[in-house]
Design brief:
This protein is α/β, with parallel strands linked by helices and 365 residues long. The protein has one domain: Rossmann fold (3-Layer(aba) Sandwich). It is 37% helix and 14% strand. It contains nine helices and eleven strands. The radius of gyration is 37 Å and the shape is elongated.
Length: 365
């Protein structure tokens, strides 16, 4: 039917028919509107359920699909570690402003299985299974350990285990590896040395650091003394004044941490003048100084906690006494500093490298 025919048909219909047609048309529009409104409501309900189920799915995914931590990481506290995350900018140990980790340890040394020291066989078997070290180094370390015990350099069990756990050969230079466990200090370049195993043991034994003690070392060197301290203590801070040496030592620690020496994650290094300590992380329960000086630096005494212990070689350029000084604080705040000579009656002089300053001189008065 054309539009013209439809128009003529509409014009010829009666009023009653026209009214019925109008009512029928309105009814159809009402039905269509009702259907559209119902469809919109239905879509709204569907959208609400979709959002709800998506939210539930996200929560379940976070709970169920959480990545599994490694066995070592499961023992760690929740706070940040001393080693940077993969995407973090690299830490420069030669920058004095470089922040150290928080007081919370990256690795809790108390969760580790004790190292047996009752017999050589038990020690070697344990270390081969744990650290996969070569027998020649384990044999040499055990033999030196026995000598240190015989001479009274090692008395505290925790320090005994610390010496046995620390691979001294990895902190020596290639040229003097055969003497790694000799009773002697060894050259590490830059005019400084790594102290001999006997004096390292005696000084650490005098400190007797506990897991909760915060330790400060002045004179990092190649990192051996700090590595020993990282076994009985969960917090070790060490300062080296020679920037290039500090950078080399940082690389040694990075390599060893990658190989599974988790305790070294608790060692924090800084390249600076150790005469002034590390005030940002004071007070320290234990302080060890591995360079000679004719007095005790005032800032180190200030940063030493009450009842804390500092072990330091004090004397002339040519000979020093290795002193253990305890900071006793009385009820009214008075401070007493009783001293103990770690080598009483010794006639042979002990000589450490001098305590240098940043201008190239020394801190001797």
């Amino acid at each position: 039917m054309s539009h013209e025919d439809e128009r003529l048909t509409l014009e010829g219909e009666s009023d009653e028919t026209r009214q019925e047609r109008i009512e029928h048309s309105q009814e159809r529009r009402s039905v269509r509107e009702l259907r559209r409104r119902r469809d919109r409501q239905f879509m709204g309900v569907l959208l609400i359920f979709a959002v709800l189920f998506f939210g539930i799915g996200v929560v379940l995914a976070r709970l169920v699909w959480r990545p599994k931590a490694s066995a070592a990481a499961q023992t760690l506290p929740a706070k940040a570690t001393s080693t940077p995350a993969k995407d973090d900018p690299p830490v420069d140990p030669t920058d004095p402003s470089t922040p150290a980790a928080s007081d919370q340890p990256a690795y809790d040394i108390t969760t580790r299985e004790p190292i047996p020291f009752e017999s050589k066989e038990a020690f070697v078997q344990h270390m081969e299974a744990w650290r996969h070290e070569e027998d020649k180094w384990l044999d040499a370390r055990w033999d030196r350990y026995q000598k240190c015990v015989e001479l009274g350099d090692l008395k505290v069990d925790r320090v005994k285990q610390a010496f046995l756990a620390t691979p001294r050969q990895l902190f020596c230079r290639e040229r003097n590896l055969p003497q790694a466990y000799a009773h002697a200090y060894l050259d590490i370049g830059y005019g400084v040395t790594i102290s001999g195993p006997h004096i390292v043991c005696r000084m650490t034994n005098a400190l007797d650091p506990q897991p909760g003690d915060k330790c400060l070392e002045i004179g990092t060197g190649s990192g051996y003394q700090a590595a020993v301290l990282a076994n009985p203590s969960n917090q070790v801070y060490s300062i080296e004044i020679i920037k290039d040496l500090a950078a080399e030592t940082e690389k040694i620690y990075e390599k060893l941490i990658a190989e599974g020496y988790d305790e070294y994650r608790n060692v924090h290094l800084k390249a600076a003048d150790g005469y002034y300590g590390w005030e940002e992380y004071a007070p320290f329960d234990r302080i060890i100084v591995t360079c000679g000086i004719d007095h005790v630096p005032p800032d180190l005494l200030k940063q030493l906690a009450p009842n804390g212990v500092i072990v330091i070689p004090v004397g002339t350029y040519d000979a020093q006494k290795v002193l253990k000084i305890t900071k006793k604080v009385g009820p009214t705040g008075e401070i007493d500093l009783p001293e103990e000579d770690l080598y009483p009656g010794r006639t042979k002089p002990i000589q450490f490298v001098p305590f240098t300053n940043e201008s190239g001189g020394t801190h001797y008065r």
